[in-house]
Design brief:
By secondary structure, the protein is an alpha+beta fold. It folds into 2 domains: 120 residues, RlpA-like domain (Barwin-like endoglucanases), CATH 2.40.40; 78 residues, 2-Layer Sandwich (Alpha-Beta Plaits). Strands 2-5-1-6-3-4 form a 6-stranded mixed β-sheet. A hairpin with a 5-residue loop joins β8 and β9. The longest helix has 14 residues. It is globular, with a radius of gyration of 19 Å. It starts with a helix and ends with a strand.
Length: 243
Amino acid sequence: MKFNFLLFLFLLVSCTSNLTTINQKIPYTSKGFAYIYNDIDFNNKIIKGKMNNEIMQISHQNLKTGTMIKIINPKNKENIVLKNIKRIKYPDFYKILITKSVAETLDLDADLPILEIIEIKKNKSFVAKKAKIYNEEKKIPSSAPIASVQISNISKTKVAKKTNKPDKVYIDIGTFYSIKTAKFLKERIIKEIPELDKRLKIRKINNKKTQVILGPYTAVNLLKNDYIKLKNFGFEELDVFIN
């Protein structure tokens, strides 16, 4: 593709095919949208496997079956640890397939179901009598093997949160040490995909890091369309975040 040489120079992007296993030394992490399972999409073959919406189940199409995955709602920091039950094929735009029970437990916004997923490597020991952890930064003892993890006693009591201000969502294209590199990448994308010009921005994180982002979005459809355009341009793994 036209942009492959830029990906090689500027981004560490792993190319994946259908049900390609992710095999890396560091835990896989990603931020983006969850696909909430429903039988209609299964019957229409949009989702290539069946799940049970009455219980908490997850499927990541590139991580091995049995992989333990921590799922975090970035808006309220609620999280659970669940096992990847099987590798079900779903649209590439989404980061993970979850059942309705998982979405309700994490109190995900059905219109913008953004979450963060973190692979828990099997050589990392920890104890978790409850998979739902209210303090994300709480240190977990390393005295027990991963086999001891249990999903239990998860409260479904929720506190209503009212807000009139819609969430603003962005696509994270890349972070660079050089602002010149960020500007060059922005110009290259605009040249190839001019319709992204108004939403493509450079954001200075600090004196050493500059980020190229696309947004803001307040609905999934437009974001999804732009995400697909970037993938067709040559990007393979892009994170999504709430500002």
